[in-house]
Amino acid sequence: MSSSDAFRQLLIDFFGLPSDIEPEKITHKAIPAWVSLSSVQLMAELQGRFNVDFDVEQLESLRSYSGIATALSRKALLISAPALKTHPDCR
Q1: What is the per-residue pLDDT across 49-68, written as a single tens digit (0 to 9) for each?
Q2: Which of the following CATH numbers is that of domain 3-90: 3.40.50.2300, 1.10.1200.10, 2.60.120.260, 3.30.1330.30?
Q3: Short-list 32, 90, 91, 28, CA closest to 62
C-alpha cells in the first residue's frame, strides 16, 4: 500500500467512509459527520499518529484530504500510520 493509500485509509477509518471513496471527495463539506468537534478530534489523532503539532490557526487547512496531506508534507512526514479508532459519530 502506498503512503497516499495509507493516509486515505486513515480518513476512511476515522469517518467510516466507503472504502472506494476518491481522495478529492474527502472534504468536510461532503461528510456530514465532519463537524467542528470531529475536526478537533481528527487534528489530535493526526498529532498523535504523526508526532506533529498543529496550531489552532491551522485547523481550517485540515478540512480535506488534500489540505491535511499538504500540511503533513510541509512537516516533511510520510503519510502512513497505524489504523485509527473510528469516530463515535461516524459508525
Answers
A1: 778 888 888 888 899 999 99
A2: 1.10.1200.10
A3: 28
Sort residue 36 into left (φ over 0), alpha (ψ -120 to 50) or beta. alpha
> Residue 2 in 3-state DSSP?
coil
Q: Do residues 34 and 26 make contact, with C-beta atoms less than 8 angstroms apart?
A: no
- The separation between CA 39 and the C-alpha centre of its own chain, rounded to angstroms, equals 9
With 0.85 as the threshold, say if the pTM is over it.
Answer: no
Which backbone phi and psi does 27 adopt, to 5 degrees? -140, 160
In this structure, the dihedral spanned by the alpha carbons of residues 39, 34, 77 and 86, taken in order and rounded to 10 degrees, is 100
Helix (H) or strand (E) holding 32: none
